[in-house]
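Task: sequence in, structure out. Protein: fructose-bisphosphate aldolase.
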Amino acid sequence: GSYADELVSTAKTVASPGRGILAIDESSATCGKRLASIGLDNTEVNRQAYRQLLLTTAGLGEYISGAILFEETLYQSTTDGKTFVDVLKDQNIMPGIKVDKGLVPLPGSNNESWCQGLDGLASRCAEYYKQGARFAKWRTVVSIPCGPTALAVKEAAWGLARYAAIAQ
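Result:
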């Protein structure tokens, strides 16, 4: 469709030789654990400062081609008022977004999980795109020690396929 050229360009940027993807899509709770380890409270101000420290590192764009952001981060700015999306773009780093809503138990399985977040995904992706995200991450887990059961494999495949169809 109308986004085909942009999709190819995004993929080429993210997969550019010698650079990798920075995953800073940890939830507020997980980010809070990092902050607690250095004696800081889990507040939006402290999470923003931590992310600003990472994203404004001199020379980051030499080594990083894409950055997967948490939803909160996508809408945050530096203390100078520059959006994190613009900070990334200025370093030729493609902004991305984590779009799944976490793992929950999969009923009828062997203590396995499935990933939620397909509900409302199309509208969230449209908003994230307007904000500057150009790729998305969806995770799913297939448990080897507990399975994988046929149900878990089928749910993972279906979930990933629906995510890909919506996000692209």
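The chain has a mean pLDDT of 94.
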